[in-house]
Amino acid sequence: MRKRLAIGSVFFAAGLFLVTGCATTRARRPDPKAEQQNQIARMQAELQAKDSEIQELEAKVETYEQALQQTHSGTPGTSGQSPLIRVSGVSVEDVQRALIRSGFDPGPVDGHAGKKTKAAIREFQRRNNLKVDGIVGEQTWSRLK
What is the spatial distance between Cα 116 and Cα 108, in angstroms, rounded to a whole number? Predict the structure, then answer.
């Protein structure tokens, strides 16, 4: 009888342990305040990362805008002259107007040496037995103006 009681007590204790769980293995509920503070810290870190990314992108945009302005106004020190014009004091607009007067279509007279302007320069050079390099040098300009 004692044996049964001892075995029953063991089964009872084991059952009780299984139902209630061990005190050390019980899942602890996180502190809501601590959880909120962790979430705020994560969000602040993400915000700082995004701010840094925005600053980098703004710097790139500024660099590209400056490069674009230099492209339209010429490189520094050349007073608005395009790299394809090697005659002092001659602008892209001057070349475009001269090409039109000579019967070549450079596209709109906009001061931008685009594909049509470059193609018109090369065609002018070809028809006038000049070196076809697409660059308006002294010889090309003397025949074009």
Answer: 9
